[in-house]
Amino acid sequence: AQTVTQSQPEMSVQEAETVTLSCTYDTSENNYYLFWYKQPPSRQMILVIRQEAYKQQNATENRFSVNFQKAAKSFSLKISDSQLGDTAMYFCALENDKVIFGPGTSLSVIP
Amino acid sequence: DTGVSQDPRHKITKRGQNVTFRCDPISEHNRLYWYRQTLGQGPEFLTYFQNEAQLEKSRLLSDRFSAERPKGSFSTLEIQRTEQGDSAMYLCASSFSGLAPYNEQFFGPGTRLTVL
To answer: Residues of B with CB below 8 A from A94's CB?
Structure first.
């Protein structure tokens, strides 16, 4: 069975600071994809960043970057220069045909 | 770009009643997913379609749940004899399974169901 774990239910960060959200997963597949999705309060879920498991290079998307450790099955998200609009639930997700989501981390950016 | 739309956005029903939700995916997307999300949790996979074929159903999808995508476009999710435990946000997502090896899903706003 595939599982995704996010061990930090809630986190907070000062505006303009950097924060890292943790995610670990388990799968017996060798080819899969990993995603971070953002769900702002009362708004739709949107994709933040994705990582192909066969790529060693960590994905980056503007202020968002990941630290992908395939052997450790770890996939953390780093948000640099945090902005108030980053306040949201963040879900780590594993895809191998269907997508399995983690329980989420609620991030609050404090002015 | 209309994105993924869901109707209704909110539904309040009494226990034992049947409810039906509709999802309209992004027009060129061939895959359509249904998820259930309870407060403070991540979305739980329910089922997905590729075109009109229902390819997988979660064990979460009891006999009271049925989903259809008759023409490979919009989809409906019906819950019969609703129970209070069915109260949740029901999310729909669509994607295009084609050139890209991954499946970036685009989510709708969800239908929030409250069973009294």
So the answer is: none
Q: Sort out which chain B residues have CB atoms less than 8 A from A52's CB and list them.
A: 101-102
User: What are the tens digits of pLDDT across the range A59-104?
Assistant: 999 999 999 999 999 999 999 999 999 999 999 999 877 789 999 9
**DSSP-assigned beta bridge partners for residue A102:** none
Residue A103 tokens, joined:
């329980």
Contact flag B44-A101 (C-beta cutoff 8 Å):
yes
Residue-wise pLDDT for B5-39, tens only, equals 999 999 999 999 999 999 999 998 999 999 999 98
Distance, in angstroms, between A27 CA and closest chain B CA? 16
In this structure, is the dihedral angle defined by the CA atoms of residues A67, A19, A93 and A52, taken in order, positive or negative?
negative
pLDDT tens, position by position, B64-102: 999 999 988 999 999 999 999 999 999 999 998 776 666
The distance of B42 to chain A (nearest Cα, Å) reads 4
Query: Which of B40, B48, B104 faces A50 most closely, judged by CB atoms?
Result: B104
d(CA B116, CA B11): 11
Q: How far is CA B44 from each of CA A16, A43, A51, B40, B57, rounded to the nearest angstrom?
A: 33, 18, 21, 12, 11
| Partners of residue B101 in chain A, C-beta under 8 Å | 33, 52
Pairwise CA distance, residues B30 & B33, whole Å = 10
Say how many CA atoms lie within 13 Å of A98 toward its Cβ. 22
What is the rounded distance in angstroms from the CA atom of residue B111 to the CA atom of residue B115? 13
